[in-house]
Design a protein that fits this description.
transmembrane helix; 20 helices; cell membrane; transmembrane; membrane; Serine Threonine Protein Phosphatase 5, Tetratricopeptide repeat; mainly alpha; about 400 residues; rod-shaped
Length: about 400
């Protein structure tokens, strides 16, 4: 309060002094230009000068503001930005509409002034690839990596995806493997790498990748389980024993492959069938017999039952006992009856084989079963019935009802 009072008194004294000076001697200023003269008092001249100076400074600041952030430059920049933003939006709409050529052109033309040029270049490259302009897509992605180094990983993943779509799988693998080594937890890279291995049919490499796919949850659980089953089924179906190995070494080779499969998958019927097939290649059917019995006891698998009847083991009597126990719960299962007939043929129990095959034919006529029964009658010395079964099997196979 005291400071304000002192300021007011000082201002009043200064004003009074100024009036006294102006009244005591006003002075004058004379300006002459050609025939024109202007005369004014000194104090008016000083006030005029101050007013002109203030107006000039204000105009200078105004033009500076208009030319910089607050005016024309900002307006022009906003206008250009809006134009390029519109191009980006139009390009993305064309991309969504699968108009690849126009989308690529529009996105590329808007990239220079876009607020998100990396997005423009990425989608322009994708659109070019969809338009089969693979070289153009490569150029755009390389441009993206140079102008936006932080987007290098994303650009490489997009390029890998483009290569996969273009079926350049070897190049895609060469691009993805170093990335996966540097960033093992990148789920996008893991998915792309698994897709590439799958398309190449490189099941050993894909099997090695399964752990990372599962650990980093790169694939949802249901798809992951289906992928695992597919991988191990193909590993089993593609298996060929090493011809330079002894028989025991070949059996060990098969055993190692089966041990490679997770325990939770070893009860899968398709995998057991694949295991059955490769055990047949190395004459080791006894190993799979117990596994098949335990699996079928827990869950009925018609395909496994059929394969069980085809097993050539050292103890077919045990096979017969196991299959006849299943007959108590499945008395009218044609597949089981044919399997029983096949086992009886191994044991040369021709009468039982005839009975099983005959009931199976009554339940589910089948050309192959007719032929099996014909062979049984031939072994029993009944050539008439054997010929009849052959004829009926032939008529059935060509779609003519047996008489």
């Amino acid at each position: 309060m005291r400071r304000l009072l002192v300021s007011l008194i000082a201002a009043m004294l200064l004003g009074a002094a100024s009036i006294w000076v102006m009244q005591s001697d006003s002075g004058y200023i004379l300006l002459s230009f050609n025939n024109t003269t202007v005369e004014m008092t000194l104090w008016v001249g000083i006030l005029f000068y101050l007013a002109v100076t203030a107006l000039g400074a204000w105009l200078l600041l105004l033009f500076k503001w208009l030319g910089n952030a607050g005016g024309l430059r900002q307006w022009w920049a906003l206008r250009r930005s809006k134009q390029h933003g519109n191009k980006t939006a139009q390009g993305l709409i064309l991309f969504a509409d699968h108009d690849w050529k126009r989308a690529s052109e529009m996105l590329l033309s808007g990239a220079g002034r876009s607020s998100m040029p990396d997005v423009n270049l990425l989608f322009a490259a994708r659109a070019a690839a969809e338009d089969n302009q693979i070289d153009q897509a490569r150029i755009l992605l390389q441009r993206l990596k140079v102008s936006h180094p932080k987007a290098k990983l994303l650009a490489d993943k997009i390029l890998a995806e483009i290569l996969i779509l273009d079926e350049q799988l070897e190049e895609a693998v060469q691009l993805l493997q170093p990335i996966a080594a540097r960033k093992p937890g990148d789920r996008g890279v893991l998915r792309l790498l698994s897709d590439t291995y799958y398309l190449m049919g490189d099941w050993p490499s894909l099997q090695k990748l399964l752990h990372d796919l599962n650990y980093y949850k790169a694939i949802n659980p249901s798809n992951m389980q289906a992928l695992e089953q597919d991988v191990y089924a193909n590993l089993l179906s593609d298996f060929t024993p090493n011809t330079e190995f002894t028989l025991q070494e070949k059996k060990d080779q098969v055993g190692d492959l089966w041990e490679l499969i997770p325990k939770r998958l070893r009860k899968d019927a398709e995998l057991i069938c694949g295991y059955f097939d490769i055990l047949q290649q190395v004459d080791d059917a006894n190993r799979v017999q117990l596994l098949m019995v335990n699996t079928i006891n827990k869950r009925w698998h018609p395909e496994l039952v059929e394969r069980f009847g085809q097993l050539k083991t050292s103890a077919p009597e045990k096979q017969l006992l196991a299959a006849e126990r299943w007959l108590l719960d499945h008395p009218e299962d044609a597949v089981l009856l044919v399997a029983l007939g096949s086992i009886c043929c191994q044991l040369r129990f021709w009468g039982k084989a005839r009975d099983y095959f005959s009931v199976a034919l009554r339940l589910q006529p089948n050309a192959a079963t007719y032929l099996r029964l014909a062979d049984v009658f031939a072994e029993m010395g009944d050539q008439t019935e054997s010929n009849l079964m052959y004829r009926q099997g032939l008529r059935f196979s060509v779609g003519v009802e047996a008489s």
